[in-house]
Write a structure and sequence with these properties.
It is a single chain. The chain has 13 helices and no strands. The chain is an all-alpha fold and 294 residues long. The longest helix has 29 residues. The radius of gyration is 24 Å and the shape is elongated. It has a single domain, classed as MetI-like (MetI-like fold), CATH 1.10.3720.
Length: 294
C-alpha cells in the first residue's frame, strides 16, 4: 500500500520505517505500563520534593509536645511523632533530601564509571588487567562499610555522602561499560576512526560512547534505586543526612523505638515512602531495559 492509499489519521508504513532508534525507544516506553507506573510514582515524589512545603498542613520541623504521639486522625492524617511533629508533613517534605543526594550520587557514579569503563575497555591489555583487578577488590567490600569508613574519616555532610556513594557505585557501572566497549571496539567504525588517525579520546568519547548509551542508561536507573537505599541506610545509622532534616531514614532512626509501645505510625509511613520510591525507580529501570531490548 502506498502512502497515498494510507487512510487519513493513520501513520504510513514509510513513517514507521523512518522512525529513529531513539524514537522507537520513546514509543516503546510510552506503551509500557511498567515504565509509566514507575514514572508516575517517581514524578509524585519529585513534585513533593520540589513543592511539598507549600501544601503540607503543618511545618515539618515544628514540634508540639502537647500532641505528641497522637494517632492518625482527621487533624493529623499520619499521626504525630514523639515530640508532636506532624508525620504527614514530614513524609512529604522529607523526600527532598533523599531525592537530592541519591540522584547526584548516581550521576557522579555514572560519569566516573563511564569514563573508567571506556578507558579499560578501549585500551585493554595491562591497563584492563590492573584496573579490573582493583575494581573487583573494591566491589568485594560492601558499600555501607566503605561509606562508613569514608564518612568517619572525612566527616558527615551531604557532599561526603554524595561522593562516597557515587564512587562506590562507579566500579559497577565501569564494568558494564567495559563489556559494551569490548564489543564495540571490534566494529568497522572504530577501525575507520583509527585509519583516520583519530586520537584515543576522540574515538572513545565521540565514536564509541554514543553507541554504548543504552546499557549506561539502564545501569544508571538501577543504581539510582540502590543509591536511595544507601542514603536511607546511612541516615538511619546516623552517618548520612543530619537533623533537623525530616529525611525518611533519619525519621525512622529517631522513632523506631516507639514501635514497641504501639506507636507504629511514627515509622510505618516513612518506611512505605522509601519502599514506594525504590519500587518506582525499579519499575522505570525495567521499562527502560525492556525498551532497549525490544
Amino acid at each position: 500500500m502506498s502512502a497515498a492509499d494510507t487512510p487519513v489519521g493513520m501513520p504510513s508504513p514509510d513513517a514507521e520505517t523512518r522512525r529513529s532508534p531513539w524514537g522507537e525507544v520513546l514509543h516503546s516506553l510510552l506503551r509500557s505500563g511498567t515504565f509509566l507506573t514507575g514514572f508516575g510514582i517517581v514524578l509524585f515524589w519529585v513534585i513533593c520534593a520540589l513543592l511539598g512545603e507549600h501544601f503540607v498542613p503543618y511545618d515539618a520541623l515544628a514540634d508540639d509536645i502537647i500532641n505528641a504521639l497522637a494517632p492518625p486522625s482527621a487533624e493529623h492524617w499520619f499521626g504525630t511523632d514523639q515530640i508532636g511533629r506532624d508525620v504527614f508533613s514530614r513524609v512529604i517534605v522529607g523526600s527532598r533530601d533523599i531525592l537530592t543526594v541519591a540522584p547526584l550520587a548516581t550521576i557522579l557514579a555514572t560519569v566516573a564509571g563511564t569514563a573508567l569503563g571506556l578507558l579499560i575497555g578501549y585500551f585493554r591489555g595491562i591497563v584492563d588487567d590492573i584496573v579490573s583487578r582493583v575494581l573487583e577488590a573494591f566491589m568485594a567490600i560492601p558499600v555501607v562499610i566503605i561509606a562508613l569508613l569514608a564518612i568517619v574519616a572525612l566527616g558527615t555532610s551531604k557532599i561526603t555522602v554524595i561522593v562516597v556513594i557515587g564512587l562506590s557505585f562507579a566500579p559497577i557501572i565501569a564494568r558494564t561499560v567495559r563489556s559494551a566497549v569490548l564489543a564495540e571496539r571490534e566494529l568497522d567504525y572504530v577501525a575507520a576512526a583509527k585509519l583516520r588517525h583519530e586520537g584515543a579520546l576522540h574515538t572513545m568519547f565521540v565514536e564509541i560512547l554514543p553507541n554504548v548509551v543504552p546499557p549506561i542508561l539502564v545501569e544508571t536507573t538501577v543504581r539510582l534505586g540502590y543509591a536511595i537505599f544507601a542514603v536511607a541506610t546511612l541516615s538511619f545509622m546516623g552517618f548520612g543526612i543530619q537533623p533537623p532534616s525530616p529525611d525518611w531514614g533519619l525519621s525512622i532512626s529517631s522513632n523506631y523505638g516507639m514501635i514497641g509501645g504501639g506507636f507504629w505510625w511514627t515509622v510505618l509511613f516513612d518506611a512505605l515512602s522509601i519502599a514506594s520510591l525504590v519500587i518506582g525507580v525499579n519499575l522505570v529501570a525495567d521499562g527502560v531495559h525492556g525498551a532497549f531490548n525490544d
